[in-house]
Amino acid sequence: MNVEQILNQFQATGVESCFHDRHINPQIYAGLNGRNWGIQDYEARGGYAALRKILGKDGGEGLTQDQVIATVKESGLRGRGGAGFPTGLKWSFMPRQFPGQKYLVCNSDEGEPGTCKDRDIMEYNPHTVIEGMAIAAYAMGISVGYNYIHGEIFHTYERFEAALEEARAAGYLGNNIMGSSFSFQLHASHGFGAYICGEETALLESLEGKKGQPRFKPPFPASFGLYGKPTTINNTETFAAVPWIIRNGGQAYLECGKPNNGGTKIFSVSGDVERPGNYEVPMGTPFAKLLELAGGVRGGRQLKAVIPGGSSSPVVPAELMMKLTMDYDSIAKEGGSMLGSGAVIVMDDTRCMVKALARLSYFYAHESCGQCTPCREGTGWLWRMVDRIEHGQGRASDIDMLDSVAGNIMGRTICALGDAAAMPVRGMLKHFRHEFVHLIEHKTSMVNADATAVKTHG
Ligand SMILES: Cc1cc2nc3c(=O)[nH]c(=O)nc-3n(C[C@H](O)[C@H](O)[C@H](O)COP(=O)(O)O)c2cc1C
Ligand code: SF4
């Protein structure tokens, strides 16, 4: 198939992309068809109006740095990279009066299993990231920025480079933007595919050309970031949300979602659904509605469990998940999990949870950077224990040992990868302990037996 045929197929089915009309009130993915990523189409969709607005280029007085930050605070925008930290508050930490160089960095490393939203944003709407970064740079008095893009999506990096060229030629980047005193140089840089380079300080090390390993914090990047200078780092989707907020106001964005959970969020829905893909919906949308948009559980099977926010978020059983809404507070307080990066992995009743955890644990053992002993050794222990249980060689003591190893990793490492490896283990043991016990006692998965029974009789 050539590119044109692939685009047509995506447009017709919406599968694995954002080209479908199964979004609710979209802001970032609105009106995209795969071909209209260029600057003229972006401007026709209202693009760069927010940058013009803050610089006073549309007849208005413009916005001060404080006004931009206040608007972002009012919007309730929370970082879309995983932790959900309030964006306006983060921007206010930047020491604006610092006399030397300050940096702005976009985190487009997107390595969390299940997450595939940032690549669609950069490929099909790259100018919204550029405009969002320019607005952020203006608000924090920053003149140089970088977008660090995951190394395994090189065509996305090339697309972003092409968009940067367009923005420079149109005068939206560079010196004295639109005749103002604001100057901002933005560059793209690509990594080489290591998950750990998504952790913000490892990303900075990699951007500096060093081995991508996390730094001890504090100091935090706001005071000691890229090349030791004050730096603000945000996720791609976070920057992409900013132009809409400036155009329409902080209150309008907040009202799109829920209190403390403003705006829309892009969810990458994968696993056992009819239509896997990216879905942009308001924060607070019921999970049941999101599942419906994604075509429901594949083959009409029964929902068993959901990993609601990327592979590091604890699994939530079906019954509980169907009562939750898709926002930071509901998933954390009522579901005991995390919204994380918004990667929703749906599992039907044929899935063996021991097997699922073995796959996840292998990933974390593989991606540990090896600096801290609890993570370097512990992630390997977790994987080997789950692997032997899965293969019918588990011991009765393994379940308590798994819980103990996970507990000893958590909170004892330089970065959160250790926690990310431990949390899925604890989540699986909390909700699906009986599957681990069954496999240890009977040397075979109870789920495979059940699934066969369903197939035989169904
Ligand atoms: C192991 C690990 C991997 C991460 N990967 C990503 C990533 O791929 N993209 C991302 O934006 N944030 C990632 N983060 C979170 C970043 O460290 C950081 O919090 C985020 O980029 C801040 O942006 P935000 O405030 O807009 O969410 C990761 C964190 C950890 C611990
Ligand atoms: S927790 Fe793991 S990934 Fe993070 S710094 Fe330590 S060894 Fe590296």
From TrEMBL:
<dbReference type="GO" id="GO:0051539">
    <property type="term" value="F:4 iron, 4 sulfur cluster binding"/>
</dbReference>
<dbReference type="GO" id="GO:0010181">
    <property type="term" value="F:FMN binding"/>
</dbReference>
<comment type="similarity">
    <text>Belongs to the complex I 51 kDa subunit family.</text>
</comment>
<dbReference type="GO" id="GO:0045333">
    <property type="term" value="P:cellular respiration"/>
</dbReference>
<dbReference type="InterPro" id="IPR050837">
    <property type="entry name" value="ComplexI_51kDa_subunit"/>
</dbReference>
<dbReference type="InterPro" id="IPR037207">
    <property type="entry name" value="Nuop51_4Fe4S-bd_sf"/>
</dbReference>
<protein>
    <recommendedName>
        <fullName>NADH-quinone oxidoreductase subunit F</fullName>
        <ecNumber>7.1.1.-</ecNumber>
    </recommendedName>
</protein>
<keyword id="KW-0479">Metal-binding</keyword>
<feature type="domain" description="NADH-ubiquinone oxidoreductase 51kDa subunit iron-sulphur binding">
    <location>
        <begin position="354"/>
        <end position="399"/>
    </location>
</feature>
<keyword id="KW-0520">NAD</keyword>
<dbReference type="GO" id="GO:0046872">
    <property type="term" value="F:metal ion binding"/>
</dbReference>
<dbReference type="InterPro" id="IPR011538">
    <property type="entry name" value="Nuo51_FMN-bd"/>
</dbReference>
<keyword id="KW-0874">Quinone</keyword>
<dbReference type="Pfam" id="PF10589">
    <property type="entry name" value="NADH_4Fe-4S"/>
</dbReference>
<keyword id="KW-0004">4Fe-4S</keyword>
<dbReference type="GO" id="GO:0051287">
    <property type="term" value="F:NAD binding"/>
</dbReference>
<dbReference type="InterPro" id="IPR019554">
    <property type="entry name" value="Soluble_ligand-bd"/>
</dbReference>
<dbReference type="InterPro" id="IPR011537">
    <property type="entry name" value="NADH-UbQ_OxRdtase_suF"/>
</dbReference>
<dbReference type="InterPro" id="IPR037225">
    <property type="entry name" value="Nuo51_FMN-bd_sf"/>
</dbReference>
<comment type="function">
    <text>NDH-1 shuttles electrons from NADH, via FMN and iron-sulfur (Fe-S) centers, to quinones in the respiratory chain.</text>
</comment>
<keyword id="KW-0411">Iron-sulfur</keyword>
<dbReference type="GO" id="GO:0048038">
    <property type="term" value="F:quinone binding"/>
</dbReference>
<dbReference type="Pfam" id="PF10531">
    <property type="entry name" value="SLBB"/>
</dbReference>
<dbReference type="InterPro" id="IPR019575">
    <property type="entry name" value="Nuop51_4Fe4S-bd"/>
</dbReference>
<dbReference type="GO" id="GO:0003954">
    <property type="term" value="F:NADH dehydrogenase activity"/>
</dbReference>
<dbReference type="Pfam" id="PF01512">
    <property type="entry name" value="Complex1_51K"/>
</dbReference>
<dbReference type="GO" id="GO:0008137">
    <property type="term" value="F:NADH dehydrogenase (ubiquinone) activity"/>
</dbReference>
<keyword id="KW-1278">Translocase</keyword>
<keyword id="KW-0288">FMN</keyword>
<keyword id="KW-0285">Flavoprotein</keyword>
<dbReference type="InterPro" id="IPR001949">
    <property type="entry name" value="NADH-UbQ_OxRdtase_51kDa_CS"/>
</dbReference>
<keyword id="KW-0408">Iron</keyword>
